[in-house]
Structures are given as structure tokens and as C-alpha cells.
Amino acid sequence: MAEDLGEKTQAPSSRKREEARDRGQVARSTDFGAGTDLIVAFILLLVFGAPLTAGLAGLIRFLLDDRDSGKMLRSEGIGDLCWWTAQQAVLVAAPIIVVLFLITLVAHILQVGWHPTLDPLMPKLDRLSPMKGFQRLFGTRNVVKTILGVIKITMLCLVVVGVSMSEWERIVALSQLEVRAMWSVLLVIITKLLGWTLLVMLVIGIADFAYQRWQMTRDLMMTRQESREEHKSMEGDPEIRGRRLKIARQIALQRLHTNVPKANVIVTNPTHYAVALQYDAKTMAAPKVVAKGADFMAMRIREIAAAHKIPVVERPPLARALYAGVPVGKQIKPEYYEAVAEILAYVYRLQDAGEKAA
After folding, report:
1. Would strands 273-278 and 265-268 be described as parallel, antiparallel, or unpaired?
2. Sign of CA dihedral 257, 261, 266, 270
3. Which DSSP letter does residue 10 get?
4. For residue 103, what are the contacts with CB-CB under 8 A and spacing of at least 6?
5. For residues 308 and 304, what is the distance between their CA atoms, to the nearest angstrom?
6. Nearest Cα to 298, choosing from 278, 334, 269?
7. Which residues pair with 277 in a beta bridge?
């Protein structure tokens, strides 16, 4: 019944997924990317925080020292001083910026892979449709986003409340501490709060990424008719494909009728494989395969051989090896010389006996 109504019950094909990917339609979670970025930034600050703080502090001391900055200001002007300050700040923060950019790029590639496309940037008139905009605004996707947003805010609030309650005694005692001790305690509390917050954001991001993959698969679902049409376009019309197979079989049979009569002997499996061998000591260095076939084609080779009175010898292992290892028109490999020579000697003896009897 669902198929009669044209409902999408078929899983999206690899071709449809690839077409969607070319359009820039991929499963990507902004929460997962943001959570990853913040965690990496937090770790980088823990690792490079001390040298970054020292570098910025030195830059600030230089700017506040009238002997150094004032001399540069008088000699080069305010514009040059601002440009030099910006350069120094970038150099100090460069390690963190570069590593954060690389990690962000890797996190994005892990989500969607490497497949750059400009299609999402192209203008599309259907995006200007008020009706479609209304449907997107109140569609299932935005409802789910709203629910996830509420859950995210709720979980973050619970983290803040939980950390505050666990550290409540230390927070109350902050007013009784010296400035240096107070900042040390605050740093511990803030670090704990950030750690739990980032962990919650990463969990939310993973859940959102799983939902985005499910939603994209659901959006790309196909009806049975669409699946049949795509299969037909990829594989070709069954009638045309059958006609091609029929023509190919006719051509193969014509080649058998031309090549098999040239053979000196047919080596068989006995029923599944048949290999026609030709050998002329004056013109050939070794016997060659002039025709071969399996099942129906093997039967046709035996029929043609019988019509032309060509000897048929049953050697199952040799027939399988020649069929699999020697192309038509090529000479046999040296490892088959002895076995084939034995068969040819046997055939020649039969021919000599027949001629004497005649």
C-alpha cells in the first residue's frame, strides 16, 4: 500500500548520496564542530597559556613604557606603531591560531570528508519562495533544533549549578583570601567549570551529528519507482542489455565456428570447460589456445569438434588451468608443455593408427 501511494520506503542509493554530496548536502553538526573547537582551544590554552601570557605581558609592558614605545612613536608615527603592535600580537598567538585552524579543519573533514563544492554558494530562486521559507521555519527540522537547543541550555545550566554547589564552600571563602590565593582558587573553579561544559557540548555535538546523519538519510529516501528508474539508468534497459548479450553470444559462436576447426585437440573438464589447442611445429614455438569456453560454450566447442572429427581428450585439471591461465590466441605457458605434449603425442598416435587402418 505504501508503494502504491508513492511513499519513500527505499534506502538512498550510493549514486543519490553522491549527487547530494556534490550539491553540498552532507550530514554536519555545528554543535559537534563548536564543541571540538572549544575543547581544542581549552587544551591549547592549558599548554601554551603561560608563554602566551608572558608574550602579551611583555608587549603590553613595551607599549606602556614611554622610553620604548614613545621613542618608536616619535620616530615612526602612530600608524607604524599600531602595525608593529598587531604584528607582534599575531606572532605571539600564531602557534595557537595555526594549531586550532588545523584541528578545526580535521574535525570538519572527519564529519563530511574532503569534497569541496561551490554549489551551495550558487543563487537559487526557490530559496526566495515565501511558502518554502514558511515550511522550513515551522518544519520538523526546526522543531527538533529548538528542542535540542532547549536541552543544550538546560544541560549547561545543570553543569553550572552542579559545579557551583560542589565548590560552594571555596566560593564563599574567596572574600577571606589574599588576591593571589583568590585567583588561584578561581582558576581551579573556572577550569573545572569549563571542562564539564566542554564535555557536555561534545556529547551534545555527537548526538546532534548522529541525528543529522539520520535526517539526511531520511531526506534522501526513494520510492520504489525512483529506485527502479535509477537502476535502469545505471544498468541500462533490460531489453537492450539482453539484446547486447545475444549479439555478443552470436559473435562468440561465429568465432568458435571459425577457430575450433583449426585445432588439433580439444581438452575438456569434461563438461564444464573446453579448450581448443592448435600446434604446428613448423610455424609455432609452442601450442596455442585458439578457442575456449565454459558450460554452454564448452558444449558448442565439443559439437563443432565432433563435426570436424577433432579428438576430444578429458584432462580436468589441465582444462581448468588452461581456461583460467591462457587467453585465446596466446601460446601456452612452459609449465603446461609436458602435459600438452603428452596429449598431442597421443593424438598423433591415434591419427597414425587411423591412417594405417585406412
Report:
1. antiparallel
2. positive
3. B
4. 36, 37, 40
5. 6
6. 269
7. 265, 289
Taking each helix axis from N to C end, the angle separating 316-325 and 337-357, rounded to the nearest 10 degrees, works out to 120
Residue 8 confidence class, pLDDT cut points 50, 70, 90: low
Q: What percent of the chain has pLDDT over 90?
A: 3
The cell numbers describing 314, all together, are 578429458
Average pLDDT, stretch 225-242?
A: 66
- Helix axes 179-219 and 140-166, enclosed angle (nearest 10): 160
The CA-atom distances, in angstroms, between 249 and each of 82, 242, 254, 301 are 81, 11, 9, 13
Residue with cell 564535555: 199
Contact 15, 234 (CB under 8 A): yes
Query: All 3 cell numbers of residue 114?
Result: 574532503
N- to C-terminal Cα distance for the chain?
77
Count of other CB atoms within 10 angstroms of residue 285: 8
Which range of 7-11, 184-188, 301-305 scores highest in mean pLDDT? It is 301-305
Q: For 161-208, give the secondary structure using H, E and C.
A: HHHHHHCHHHHHHHHHCCHHHHHHHHHHHHHHHHHHHHHHHHHHHHHH
DSSP-based three-state secondary structure for 277: strand
Q: Which amino acid is at 243?
A: R
pTM of the predicted model as reported, rounded to 2 decimal places: 0.44
How far, in Å, CA of 309 to CA of 284, rounded?
23
Dist CA 288 CA 276 (whole Å) = 8
Highest mean pLDDT among 95-104, 169-178, 318-327: 318-327
Burial class (CB in 10 A: 0-12, 13-18, 19+), 355: exposed
